[in-house]
Amino acid sequence: MSPAIQWYPGHIAKAEKALVEQLKRVDAVLEVRDARIPLATHHPQMGRWIGNKGRILVLNRVDMIPPRAKEKWETWFKAQKETPYFTNAQQGQGVVAVAKATQVVGAAINQRRCDRGMRPRPVRVVVLGFPNVGKSALINRLLKRRAVESARRPGVTRQLRWVRISDQLELLDAPGVLPSQLKDQDAALKLAICDDIGEAAYDNQRVAAAFVDLIQALDGNAKNRGASQALSDRYRLNPQGQTGESYLVNLAELHQQGNIERMARRILTDFRKGDLGTLILESPPS
After folding, report:
1. How many beta carbons lie within 10 A of that of residue 218, not counting itself?
2. Were both Cys, which of 69, 105, 116, 223 would link to 283 (CB 3.0–4.6 Å)?
3. Where in the chain is the domain with CATH 3.40.50.300?
4. pLDDT computed for residue 84 by the predictor
5. What is the model's pTM?
6. CA 161 remoteness from chain centre
7. Where are the alpha helices (DSSP H) in the chain?
């Protein structure tokens, strides 16, 4: 049995404490999730943190999922009385709609201030989500300039910082927040596959094998049809009838002189870069 995926570095624990303090000053929350795994990237404390503040739900990396998967998630979230905003923050797709939604929330907040005889002020919005879901890239797009460091790896943002977007809006860029205990190991595996937690938390071989198993399971129930084919096309070996572990061993023999670790890293990198095409790792609950 492989060790559980677990990651809670000091800078996140420290940032979470500071975040809870800053949340008292915030009017609204931009919650950013990974469109490939919208449920696994929902923080269990989010509801408690948000309370009765305004909330805008952003599903980033829409470019990495099939259009029909986007439609299904949109329908599911709307049935939960939520409006998801799909973005590709790297390229700027969907960001204008997020900016408009933020302005609407801001206008409502300042209207309430005026009703109480208070003067309007810039609306304070915090951008929250797991590491590496694209929060900093989204902020840079909203600002129309590179104001915060952004990279496709977890742990780039290390501290809280305020960024002024306009006279009406201030954004708080927060480090990625992870639950102190990753109790749901299925969700933890998906976070590892998508590189939404630090590499120190997991074993590449275990995660790559789990990825192959997951792809086949989704293929089997027609939610991700063609996903196994993507593996066949890329690596010239069909995964059907093999476990993720045995497929990884056979691929390593075929492509990496038997080096399983190198093959595991290659599969994960190919998925993360989109070289396996558009794939989802979660479907809406039925």
Report:
1. 19
2. 223
3. 10-173
4. 97
5. 0.88
6. 20
7. 10-22, 46-50, 67-79, 95-115, 135-143, 185-193, 204-220, 227-235, 244-255, 260-273
Distance CA 80, CA 82 (A): 6
Bridge partners for 125 per DSSP: 28, 171
CA distances from 29 to 24, 106, 240 (A): 12, 11, 43
Contact (CB, 8 A) for 244 and 228 = no
Residue 170's H or E segment, with its range, is strand 169-173
Round the average pLDDT of the chain to a whole number and report it.
Answer: 86
Structure tokens belonging to residue 107: 């206008």
Amino acid 155: pLDDT = 44
| Nearest CA-CA partner of 126 in 54, 37, 198, 59 | 54
pLDDT in tens, 173-198: 877 787 766 778 888 899 999 998 87
Torsional sign, CA 97, 33, 194, 282: negative
CATH of 10-173 given 3.40.1260.20, 3.30.70.260, 3.40.50.2300, 3.40.50.300: 3.40.50.300
231 Cβ contact partners less than 8 Å away, ≥ 6 residues apart: 212, 215, 237, 238, 239, 247, 276
- The fraction of the chain above a pLDDT of 70, given in percent, is 86
CB atoms closer than 10 angstroms to residue 117: 6
Convert the pLDDT of each residue in 201-230 to its tens digit: 789 999 999 999 999 988 765 555 678 899
